[in-house]
Amino acid sequence: MSLRWQPELLDPAMPGGWALVHSQQQFLFDDNGVLFPRDWLRRLDLGVVSEQGLGYFDGEPVFLFELAQPEDVPGARWQCLRQFMLQDGDRDLFRMLGFAAQIGTWAHQHRFCGSCGSPMQQRTGERAMHCPACGLHQYPRLSPSMIVLVTRGDELLLARSPRFAPGVYSTLAGFVEPGESLEQCVEREVREEVGVSIRDLRYIGSQGWPFPHSLMLGFHAQYDGGEIVPQPEEIEDARWFSIHALPGLPARQSIARYLIDLYVASRLGLEPPALPR
Ligand SMILES: NC(=O)c1ccc[n+]([C@@H]2O[C@H](COP(=O)([O-])OP(=O)(O)OC[C@H]3O[C@@H](n4cnc5c(N)ncnc54)[C@H](O)[C@@H]3O)[C@@H](O)[C@H]2O)c1
Ligand SMILES: [Mg+2]
Ligand SMILES: [Zn+2]
């Protein structure tokens, strides 16, 4: 893995450095990019709700200014995290922004103790919020989610959610529920979303996914039985597609796309793709 982006717990009391400005899944940027001199940003007097030391980009310390809402800054604009992902450029930059968005949103949403309502404080020495009144600790939130490509020989079961861009179909995904194993989650989600049963579940790989705080655990599975019945509201359409006539597919940077490309490559005897990180 590349070394341009290295997360690390930096003390915000440290002087200088660069800073990202984040609010509601958007980042401030200008002609020089998303990193601004931190001391210059300080003088703008923005509505910062949390400042976090994130790590090193190209060896330079990077901090985060989390704002309550996106504010106007002369000469700069705001752009969604998803847009940065789709600009097929710098993977390290996107990994840094994905990390920053998750830490910033988490810090913003844990300013007050969920147990007693007191203001929380940032802990020194670990990435956690701490309630001085009742002792509660809160760590950055991660939601394990499974994602699975169901296949039947040369056919792939792909579905579309009403949220997708027109014509795009993808693999099935869903959040793990308390008490369930990943295997049970995959079987349940496939049953709920398309009504079919599966067998020969095989774990393929994982991907951190900052929309909004998922850890994607990717599988291949074989179709076992049942007719496709799309889940009302969640699934607009689901069908079998031949590997020779695929519809619009998810972004190259997603593990959804990797699961599809990997299977197609194996059927066609092609070189396997690399797991996006
Ligand atoms: N990287 C990829 O390739 C890829 C592809 C597809 C989906 N995903 C991600 O997988 C995750 C799950 O996919 P889905 O949207 O199909 O899930 P899903 O099928 O479980 O349905 C989403 C709904 O589940 C509910 N929900 C249950 N637990 C939740 C939790 N912990 N956080 C938020 N909502 C919760 C909400 O009502 C939400 O609207 C999402 O974060 C999505 O962005 C990633
Ligand atoms: Mg789903
Ligand atoms: Zn408390």
TrEMBL record:
Which superkingdom is the protein from? Answer: Bacteria
Is Hydrolase among the key words of this record? yes
Q: Where is this motif: Nudix box?
A: 174-195
Q: Name one GO cellular component term.
A: cytosol
Which residues are a divalent metal cation 2-binding?
E189
> In which residues is a divalent metal cation 1 bound?
A173, E193, E234
Domain (Nudix hydrolase): give its ranges.
140-263
Q: Which GO terms describe its molecular function?
A: magnesium ion binding; manganese ion binding; NAD+ diphosphatase activity; NADH pyrophosphatase activity; RNA NAD-cap (NMN-forming) hydrolase activity; zinc ion binding
One GO process term, biological-process aspect = NAD+ catabolic process
Name the positions where a divalent metal cation 3 binds: E189, E193, E234
Give the matching InterPro entries. Answer: NAD-cap_RNA_hydrolase_NudC (IPR050241), NADH_PPase-like_N (IPR015375), NudC-like_C (IPR049734), NUDIX_hydrolase-like_dom_sf (IPR015797), NUDIX_hydrolase_CS (IPR020084), NUDIX_hydrolase_dom (IPR000086), RNA_Hydrolase_NudC (IPR022925), Znr_NADH_PPase (IPR015376)
ATP-binding is among the record's keywords: no
Q: SUPFAM superfamilies per the record?
A: Nudix
Output the Pfam families linked to this UniProt entry: NUDIX (PF00293), NUDIX-like (PF09296), Zn_ribbon_NUD (PF09297)
Q: How is the cofactor bound?
A: Divalent metal cations. Mg(2+) or Mn(2+).
Which reaction(s) are listed as its catalytic activity? NADH + H2O = reduced beta-nicotinamide D-ribonucleotide + AMP + 2 H(+); NAD(+) + H2O = beta-nicotinamide D-ribonucleotide + AMP + 2 H(+); a 5'-end NAD(+)-phospho-ribonucleoside in mRNA + H2O = a 5'-end phospho-adenosine-phospho-ribonucleoside in mRNA + beta-nicotinamide D-ribonucleotide + 2 H(+)
Known CDD domains for this protein?
Answer: NUDIX_NADH_pyrophosphatase_Nudt13
Q: Please tell me which top-level EC class this enzyme sits in.
A: hydrolase
Its needed co-factors are: Mg(2+); Mn(2+); Zn(2+)
**Enzyme Commission code(s) on record:** 3.6.1.-, 3.6.1.22
- Binding of substrate occurs at R82, E126, Y139, Q207, G208, W209, P210, F211, P212, H213, S214, A256
Which amino acids does the record list as binding Zn(2+)?
C113, C116, C131, C134
Q: How does it assemble?
A: Homodimer.
Q: What does this chain do?
A: mRNA decapping enzyme that specifically removes the nicotinamide adenine dinucleotide (NAD) cap from a subset of mRNAs by hydrolyzing the diphosphate linkage to produce nicotinamide mononucleotide (NMN) and 5' monophosphate mRNA. The NAD-cap is present at the 5'-end of some mRNAs and stabilizes RNA against 5'-processing. Has preference for mRNAs with a 5'-end purine. Catalyzes the hydrolysis of a broad range of dinucleotide pyrophosphates.
Belongs to which family? Belongs to the Nudix hydrolase family. NudC subfamily.
> Which protein, by its recorded name, is this?
NAD-capped RNA hydrolase NudC
Q: Native species of this protein? A: Stutzerimonas nosocomialis
Q: Which gene encodes it?
A: nudC
